[in-house]
Amino acid sequence: MKIILAPDSFKECLTATQVAQAMALAVKEACPSADVVLLPLADGGEGTLEVLARAMEARLCEATVSDPLGRPVRAKYGVAGKTAILEVAQACGLSLLRPWERNPLVASSLGVGELLMAAYDNGCRHFLIGLGGSAICDGGAGMMSVPGIKDLSGISMVLLCDVNAPFVGPNGTTRVFAPQKGASPEDVEVLEERMVRRAALIREETAVDVSHLPGAGAAGGLGGAFMAYFGAGRVSGIQKVLDLCHFSEVAHGASLIITGEGRSDAQTLMGKAPFGVLQNAKGTPVALLSGQIEDREALVAAGFHPVVEVSPRNLPLREALQKKTAIENLRAAVKSLF
């Protein structure tokens, strides 16, 4: 029996690789004869660099850049030939800030521009950019302030992103995502006004109106800045990752695919890693094991079976996020499948 383990990370707790390894131990204990294949995944957010660097046999490089509050931080990027793999969260991610530091009114994308310039100076001319997990809502203002960045030539960019939010408006990046990054209702109004002005400036400088462009609101407006200034194209993050990891070939002949993420709900069906796995499973059963499960009926209706919640409901979140506890709960959940 061939079993594919294709999870995303359990954010704030376990990387996708750690999740897959814990799953593998449990499968082997429950079914020693199983042929187990580990295929950790990401959908453009945190962990994308690790997954794609492995798939593309890229070497990892580092650069000192600015974090969202302007402090120096060592950020990694991958290099495969002339292609760079960038993960914006390495420079402006929420994970770089303590909870009380999260404030999109002051957080900047400056470090993303510095990381881009470092990869360019390293000979890279093609860029795969994961846009998830950002702490900013500056429309790329920080990034585009880096000296020389507007003069880059001979480059191409592909954005790994499943966010359809436009730059501004009721469904724009500020109103949808800024509260998750620490913005109060009052802050949201200030940020929206800034983004409207930012869209006008981008239109003046590039002749591209990002205001209502689908995906322009990704990563606090970085999506729109990449599209307008560099002509970046946008693709499904998880589909690109699955293609580069040769998922269809690896999963051929499998009896079961096990996927998962930190929390699964209706938003999982809008392009997150587990849904990408389900869409590419070609009839192979797909089990969903996630730390928390909401909207179970929608997940089951989409085709996941079974749908298993890894963390017991009565377990305090702080304890559930402890690495050792998470691994124990994950292994127990996997064994329950058999």
Write the layout of secondary structure elements.
Blueprint: E1 2-5, H1 16-30, E2 35-38, H2 48-55, E3 59-66, E4 72-80, E5 83-87, H3 89-92, H4 110-121, E6 126-130, H5 141-144, E7 156-160, H6 173-177, H7 185-206, H8 218-230, E8 233-235, H9 237-244, H10 247-251, E9 256-259, E10 263-264, H11 273-279, E11 286-290, E12 292-293, H12 296-302, E13 307-309, H13 317-320, H14 323-336
Parallel strand pairs: 1-2, 1-9, 5-6, 6-7, 7-8, 9-11, 10-12, 11-13
Antiparallel strand pairs: 3-4, 4-5
Helix pairs in contact: 1-14, 7-8
The residue ranges in which pLDDT falls below 50 over 5 or more consecutive positions are none
Range of strand content: 15-25%
Physical arrangement of strands within the biggest beta sheet: 3-4-5-6-7-8
Radius of gyration: 20 Å
Q: What integer is the average pLDDT? A: 95
The count of helical stretches stands at 14
Query: Which structural class matches the secondary elements?
Result: alpha/beta
What percentage of residues falls in helices of 4 or more residues?
Answer: 25-40%
In sequence order, what are the helices and strands, one letter per element? EHEHEEEHHEHEHHHEHHEEHEEHEHH
The major sheet is characterized as:
6 strands, mixed
Index terms:
six-stranded mixed beta sheet, 338 residues, five-stranded parallel beta sheet, alpha/beta
Describe this structure in words.
The protein has 338 residues and is an alpha/beta fold. It contains 14 helices and 13 strands. It has helices at residues 16-30, 48-55, 89-92, 110-121, 141-144, 173-177, 185-206, 218-230, 237-244, 247-251, 273-279, 296-302, 317-320, 323-336, and strands at 2-5, 35-38, 59-66, 72-80, 83-87, 126-130, 156-160, 233-235, 256-259, 263-264, 286-290, 292-293, 307-309. It has a six-stranded mixed beta sheet, sandwiched between helices. Strands 2-1-9-11-13 form a five-stranded parallel beta sheet, sandwiched between helices. A two-stranded parallel ribbon has the order 10-12. Strand 4 (72-80) and strand 5 form a beta hairpin. The protein is globular and about 60 Å long. The mean pLDDT is 95.
